UniProtKB/TrEMBL annotation:
Cross-referenced InterPro entries: Ankyrin_rpt, Ankyrin_rpt-contain_sf, Ubiquitin-like_domsf
Organism: Symbiodinium necroappetens
UniProt keywords, alphabetically: ANK repeat, Repeat
The protein's name: INVS protein
Extent of the ANK repeats: 155-181
Keyword Signal part of the UniProt annotation: no
Length: 199
């Protein structure tokens, strides 16, 4: 079954073969958004809104159950302006492993790479350092900069180095699968592999 996707202007973005998105009949709007991001280079699902007959569809809506006409519209949202307090709250939620709160911020949509004034460590670094795989997965899906360093006391650490240093294997796997630079080094631990060997 083919699903045409158009912008509100009428421009066709894609014609999606739903059977390729998910191999069964459970293709949801969330699956569709992920497919549009990976196969068509569109922004992450957090910045997409899918409409059918003028109504925004929930991410859990089954695409196979849409009424005719069988087509959807796509709205791409820019990041919202975030106050320093909202940035601090977002990064703190990542540090604590509060995946539902992190996802709520990402769906505003909020830039995943905002730097808090208080600690200067981004959300991906905080979640990686504390071993929160679910949050790391969300942030990588939101296209957070996987190699953005945290500068502290004249040193720079990447999320991968922090996860290796703390022995968070699942987070390390997620970051490597996401293309994190395993050669990025800092002066006291060297590369992520060196840091992992201390654990």
């Amino acid at each position: 079954m083919m699903l045409p996707v158009h912008l509100l202007s009428g421009e066709e973005v894609a014609v999606v073969p739903l059977e390729e998105v998910v191999r069964d009949d459970s293709c949801t709007v969330r699956h569709l958004k992920r497919y549009l991001c990976s196969a068509h280079g569109l922004p992450p699902r957090f910045q997409q809104r899918i409409l059918h007959d003028g109504a925004v569809l929930d991410d859990e809506t089954c695409c196979f159950r849409l009424a005719t006409p069988f087509s959807v519209q796509l709205i791409l949202l820019p990041f919202v302006e975030a106050t320093p307090e909202k940035i601090d709250h977002f990064v703190e939620a990542a540090r604590k492993g509060e995946s539902s709160e992190v996802e709520r911020h990402l769906l505003l949509p909020q830039d995943p790479d905002l730097i808090p004034q208080r600690c200067q460590a981004r959300a991906l670094y905080q979640a990686s350092c504390d071993g929160h795989a679910a949050v790391v997965s969300l942030l990588l899906e939101a296209k957070a900069d996987k190699d953005a360093p945290y500068h502290h006391l004249g040193n720079s650490r990447t999320p991968l180095l922090a996860a290796c240093e703390k022995g968070h294997k699942e987070v390390v796997r997620l970051l490597l699968d996401g293309g994190a630079d395993h050669h990025a080094a800092c002066w006291d631990f060297g590369t992520p592999l060196t840091a992992a060997s201390f654990e």
